[in-house]
Amino acid sequence: MTEPLYDIGEAREFAGGASVRVVRAGWFRPDAGGFFGVVPKPLWSRFTETDERGRLLCRLNLLLIEADGRRILVETGTGVRMEAKDREIKGVEGGDPTVALREVGEDPASIDFVIVSHLHYDHAGGMVAADGRPLFSNARYVVQRDDAEAAHGDELRVQGVMETEQLDAVRAAGQLAEVHGETELAVGVRVIRTGGHTRGSQAVLIGVEGGGDRAIFWGDLIPTRWQIPVRWTSAYDDYPIEAIEMRNTLVRQAAAEGWWCYFTHDPGALPIRIEDAGRGAYRAVEAP
What's the angle, vertex CA 69, arms to CA 59 and CA 102, rounded to 5? Predict the structure, then answer.
């Protein structure tokens, strides 16, 4: 692997003045069978390949957004609280969002909002430090109420797989901002509940309506460009039918309106656009 562990992309501006940079906070290697679910290997292997243990090489991508005088971080990576055995099994390298920010010259204390797309370990694992204190001391952590409730619910499928302890630590520190559905955090930056992957998964829309470039950060609704086919659900999608329907709606809009797309685990250059390929199919278009 020749790419740096930590990196930050060039800023791209969107309608309304929001500026976005990709912060690469490390790597991890999810199991390909879980990542692609029931999608046959001859289909997904056209886009990527696995290591000798059947794992994919994926990024832990964060977004750093500056808009309306606020600094917003999207996602927190895996953090530092994972056991060494789990890190080895999942191939985690790096993953601490504060280290990633400092490595690229950014101060974690300057963050006003931390958007957590959902409460799985590779997105919410870096909400708090090893001692349980929130890593972003001056930020409000934005989580959909549906996901917070699911973390404390009794559904067997989600038991032990959501970062409930970290969520509670952020709540106890008075830094949790539970939102319900679409919510604007700054001019040109809003979260929307997508569901599908988890009960309260959320995406981030960037840019104001009515002219100029706009963008979307998909969360795990579409974790990489490899999963643009809207019917390609993951084994980790708790509500696959809802995921397919929401993907279909948003991918169609993204292609029709030329949205730029940011993906949480894509190892390639970002952002990209999505193009209608006809007959209900879509494809990724690299930025010029």
Answer: 40
CA angle 117, 123, 127 (to 5 degrees): 100
Tokens of residue 123, six digits: 């997105």
Q: How many structural domains is the chain composed of?
A: 1
Q: Are 220 and 123 in contact (CB under 8 A)?
A: yes
Q: Is the pLDDT of residue 131 over 80?
A: yes
Q: Supply the CATH number for residue 185's domain.
A: 3.60.15.10
Q: Which DSSP state fits 10?
A: P
* Residue 160 pLDDT grade (very low, low, confident, very high; cuts 50, 70, 90): confident
Tell me if 2 is assigned to some domain.
no
C-alpha 34, offset from chain centre: 17
**In whole numbers, what is the pLDDT of the chain averaged over residues?**
96
Q: So what's the pLDDT on residue 101?
A: 98
Q: Which tokens hold the place of 280? A: 């209900």
